[in-house]
Amino acid sequence: MRWVVGVVLTLLVLAIGWVTVRGIGAVNDLQRVSASASQLKAAIGEGDLDRAAALSGRIAHHAESAHDLTSDPVWHAFAIVPWLGPNFSAVSDVASIADQVASDALVPVLDAADELDLASLGLSGGVIDLAPFAAIEAPLADASATLASAEDRALRIDADATLPPLADAVREMRSVVTQASTVVGALHGASALLPSMLGAEGPRNYVVAMQNNAELRSSGGIIGAIALLHAEGGRISLVQQASTTDFPPLEQALPLSESTVALFEDRPGRFLQNITNIPDFTEAAPVIAQRWQQRFGTPVDGVIAVDAVMTKNLLAATGPLAFGPFTATEDNVVSLLLSDIYTTIPDPAVQDQVFAQAASALFGAALTTAAPKDLVAALATSADEDRIRIWSAHEDEERLLAASELGGAIPEDDATSHVGVLFNDTTGAKMDYYTDATITTAIGRCDGAPTTQVRVTWTNNAPADAATALPAYVTGGGTYGVDPGTVRTLITVYGPEGATPSFVDREGGQGDEGAQTTLLGSRTAVQQEVLLAPGESATITVEYQGDGTGNRLTTVDHTPMIRTPDISPEELRCGS
C-alpha cells in the first residue's frame, strides 16, 4: 500500500512540475504575443507593412508555442480540478484563441494590406480607388469570420472564476480581440459594399440626415439639416442641401411599426424632425428616404445619419474651419454648434444658413484637405461611438449593413445579452446640451429568479437661472407646456431578448407615475416621461427576468449623447 501511495505521490509531484514548467513557458509566450500585438497595431497604423509582417510572424510563433504547451493531456487533467481548474482552462483557451487569430486572421489581413493601403482606403483627392476592394474581399471575409469566432470564444471564458492576475489578462485579451474583430469586420464590410455603394456600377444618391444632440432622439438627435450626396465612380459630391422648413408636417402619417406608434404616437411619420425617434434605423431610414423623394422627386439609394458630435472627430483630421461668423476647432466645435450659435444668432432661419455653411465646409475639407489616414481614423472613431448609421435601399447591401453596427438595428443577443437606454426630448428645445446620464447594470437573483437590473440616473445640469439666462430657442420658452429651464424627456429602457420586466421604479423628478410598456422586436421596452428643473435628477430602475437575464456578459446600448454616459456594473440590490 505504501508503495502505491508513493507512486501516486511521485506521479502527482511530476505532474505538478510538468504543468508548472509548461505554464511558465505558456505565460511567457502569451506576454510576448501581447507586447507584439501592441507593436503590430502601431506598425499598421504607420503603414509599415514590412515591420507588421515580421511582427505577425513573431506573434504566430509564440501563440502556437503557448497553445502547444497548454493542450496536452496532463494540462487538461488539471483543468477539471475544483477551484484550480478554471485557471488552467482559461490559460488553455487564451492560448488557443491567440493561435487561431494569429494563424487564420493576421496572415489574410496583411496579405490584403499589400493590395490596399489600410491607412487611406484608396482615398486621394476626393476620389476613392474602387479597384482593389474586389481583390481583398475574400481574404478579409475569412479573417473577419475567424475573429468573430475568436471573440465569441473569448466572451465565454469565465474570467470571474480565475485568479485576479489571470482575470485581468483574459479581459485584456477580450478587448484586443473585440477591437480587431470590429476593425477587420469594418474593412470587410467596406470591401464588399464600397464599390457598388460609391457608384462603380452606376451613380448613387444618398440622403444625409444631420442630427442635433442638443435635442435628443433615439439615434442621436433631432434632424436639424438634411442634404443629398451623389456618388459615381468613387467620386463623392454634395449636390443639394435643405432645411427642415422644406418639409412641412404631413396630414397623413407615413406607415410606422406598432412599437414606434406605441412609444411616440404617429409623430415620426408626420414630422421629419422626429423620424429619428424610431429606435431601429432600419425602420427610420426608409421613412427619411420617402420624405426626400416626396419633396424633391430624386430617387434615393440610401440614407446616412450622423450626429453633431462627429464633427469633433472630423476636425481632428481637417484642422480649423471657418463658416458664418465662427471659426471652429476640434476643441470648440461641439459647444459652438450645439450651444453658442443659438446665443450669437437668435434668428432660426439664419441659424439654418450657418449650419448649411458648416456642413458644406466640413464636407469639402474632409474630402480634399484632410490626410486620408486621419480621415479614416476620424470615421472609425465616430462609428465606434455609434455616431454614424447607414441604410441602403438595395437589399443585398442592406443585409450586410443591418448585420453590422453601422446598420443601427436593435441588436440581437448571442453570448452577450444586450440592454438599452434611449433618450427622447419632449421639451421642444435645445436643453439636452445641459443633460447627463449615468447607467448601471446589476445581475443576480431576485425572489430566486435570474435577474438583470438596469438603473438610469438623468440629470439637468442647466444653470439655476436658465429660464432667463438662456435664449428662448434653447429653453423652448414654454411653447410646449414646459417651464423655461426645465427638461422633459422620454426615457426608454429595454431588456434582453425574451425577458419581461418584474420591477419598475422612479425616484425624483416629476411626470406621470405610470410606465408605458411595448415590444421592440423580441425585447420588452419600458418608457417613462420625466421633468427636471435645473439641478434636479431622477433615477429609473427596471428589473428584467426570463430569457437572457443574469448573464455576466451584458452590454449596454444607448442613445449617442454629447457626453457619453458613465456606464458601470454594480452589486444587485433587488427593488422587488
Instruction: Please work out how many helical segments DSSP would assign.
Output: 16
The overall strand count is 19
Low-confidence stretches: 2-19
Question: Averaged pLDDT, please?
Answer: 83
Largest beta sheet: strand ordering: 5-4-3-6-9
Shape: globular
Report the sheet with the most strands, covering strand number, pairing sense and barrel closure.
5 strands, mixed
SS class: alpha+beta
Q: How much of the polypeptide forms β-strand, as a percent range?
A: 15-25%
- Alpha-carbon distance between the termini? 59 Å
What percent of residues adopt helix (DSSP H or I)? 40-55%
Radius of gyration: 26 Å
What does this structure look like?
The structure is a single chain. The chain has 576 residues and is an alpha+beta fold. The chain is 45% helix and 23% strand. It has 16 helices and 19 strands. The strands form five sheets. The chain has a five-stranded mixed beta sheet, with helices on both faces. A hairpin with a 2-residue loop joins strand 7 and strand 8. Helix 2 (49-69) runs antiparallel to helix 4. The chain is globular and about 75 Å long. The chain starts with a helix and ends in a 7-residue tail after the last strand. Residues 2-19 have low confidence and may be disordered.
